[in-house]
What we know:
The complex is a heterodimer of chains A (308) and B (470). Chain A is built from 10 helices and 10 strands. Chain A has helices at residues 12-27, 50-70, 87-97, 120-128, 159-173, 198-222, 241-246, 273-281, 291-302, 304-307, and strands at residues 2-6, 30-38, 77-84, 100-105, 133-135, 148-152, 177-184, 231-238, 254-259, 286-289.
Amino acid sequence: MxxxxxxxxxxxxxxxxxxxxxxxxxxxxxxxxxxVVPTSWPPGPGRVDAEFRRHLAASADAALGRxxxxxxxxxxxxLVVHHARSAAAGLLEVAEGExxxxxxxxxxxxxxxxxxxLGSVADRLLHSSPVPVALATRGYRGEExxxxxxxxxxxxxxxxxxxxxxxxxxARVGAPLRVASFAVHGPTIVTAGAGFRAEDDVVxxxxxxxxxxxxxxxxxxxxxxxxxxxxxxxxxQGADWGAALGDVPWDGGDVLVVGSSAxxxxxxxxxxxxxxxxxxxxxxxxxxxxRRSAVSLAERAGHPAGAS
Amino acid sequence: MAPLLxxxxxxxxxxxxxxxxEAGGLRRTIGLAQLSMFGIGATVxxxxxxxxxxxxPVAGPAVIVSFVIAGVVAxxxxxxxxxxxxxxxxxxxxxxxxxxxxxxxxxxxVAACLLLEYGVSAAAVAVGWSQYLNxxxxxxxxxxxxxxxxxxxxxxxxxxxxxxxxxxxxxxxLVRGTSESARANAAMVVVKVAVLLLFVVVALAGWExxxxxxxxxxxxxxxxxxxxxxxxxxxGLDAVSTAGEEVEDPRRTMPLAILIALVTVTSLxxxxxxxAVAAQPQERFDGQEAGLAAILEDVTGSTWPGTVLAAGAxxxxxxxxxxxxxxxxxILFAMGRDGMVPPLFARVDRRTQTPVAGxxxxxxxxxxxxGLLPIDFLAEMTSVGTLVAFLVVSVGVMVLRRTAPDxxxxxxxxxxxxxxxxxxxxxxxxxxSLRGITLVVxxxxxxxxxxxxxxxxxxxxxxxxxxxxx
Lengths: 308, 470
């Protein structure tokens, strides 16, 4: 299997290459660095924009060259320039051709440093990729290996499969697994007369339920043939999503795994409103897993012999 | 007999509430200005948009005095609420205060009042909404919803469809999530204050002193009866007191905020009612739908101010229904967790973090009320529920001073025991002026809830287990 890396000729390049190297080293996969160049339109011997196309090709080569220099020597990588209608379409075409395990992308330069921000390409891929998509935070500098896998849990249906899938991956890369849920204390509708703490009680009950559910899913993880070196649960609470995610301790080497929504095409990544809030507020790189992919990864975790 | 007595008098320890909160210590973050705004936002608009047509025929122009009386009584109780809220920092409103101070049976009685207060006022407000919606549709597109679908059976229709739709929309929003609902509400609060100010300014042009000449045609009786009808326009004032443990410097902030909110809201109400009764002969109020909008149309001779007002009312009444339904579901949530009602109400949806099942049940029940009952009856039922709940809280303050004199209180009622006693007297005075049928229906309702308690709550109460264990 291969990790496919979308390379661009800008500041995103370093972050995405660092994340790709970290993931590849941890999982023992190789990398495929892809720079997508727009095809001319209409296709054919059009020469009007030849100069522009030469410029694009040169800039794609430069981007790949820079990516290669940023990449540590111990990570095997191939470089590909691919022609396609759009960057997103090109990445998907390459992903279908190769046996791709994961697409790695950077954050938009418009987002805040240290956060995941979806650019147009990432946004498109999150709606149409059949394989998981890893997103680097803006300015991510990477770590040696993945030191902990955190599965965001409780927001969507199929959450159990996602945790089992994350457990399988964590076991494979030898990292601890953490199941994290996030409770946002919405502002109480202050004029209701039911008390300013009415919402705390509702959230408190929710937290109690989700803690029980976390234990249930960990019991399922414990029954797997290969288990992560250690497991842990955590519930982050806060007045908004940023605070709830900030309520949970994060370290270098953490990767957050988020599942796609129950609605939308089953085969593809499609972020629900809550999952997309988790992604946007994550201080660590995020891997977004499509539902069907989570199911098959969970099955693989249950039969590791077939996977290896 | 003794064990039964013990059962109905068992109290929920304050520590148990603290343990349930789980979120840890409360931060004192709410300041005076913010708290006053809460109170004003909570109170304004509930009744003023449509209660005049109920109250003026009873009191005449003296309805102005009725507004002041209702406001003063509501203010007195709000101060009593403030002490309880600061001593028993729990959610669930007076139900929880009563459970912690006066015991299970009283708590259940208070719950009956609260269910009436919240459930019925949501329905009453939704019915008022439908009148303004009809006015708006008539002005803007020239089409009114047919009588059969916009009036209750008693008023000659089949079902009040807009009211039912409103309740359904609000329930949907609440199911979607609390923060969505809170944001929608904040925007609507701004709209309603602006719209009432617009009314005062425009309707002033139609001032006719003759309209005020026969000031109190039905004497003091009429004035107090009207105060009873109006009373539920002020139920939002207790919102201030529920901040108990979360305001900065509660001793100063709580009473000040209650006073500021009370004075502001009462002034706004009085201003609206003064210009309204001065602009239109009192006979015309009787049965007038969307009264404020109609007054503006008469005064200006054109439809646009009425349209603006009706639009504002449609928006702001939406927010009231939303908020009251919210309060209802959260009180049932607290009761469900105590085992007083089936646990269905305390079940929180994994995905939306809201009590979905409870919200749906409340929505259906309130929708039925709103669709089938006339508004004046609903308004009076709300008032009696609120008044009895307030009464219990005022008594609760005095009981708690006796039973737990050393309990830490963030705020103490000034002039004790004069104010709580005045509050009790005020509540009793207004209750005594309500129509007989209202009191009978109320008594039947409370009896039904208590019967439910003896059939269900007494055995399912969370405290029942601890009692057996002892």
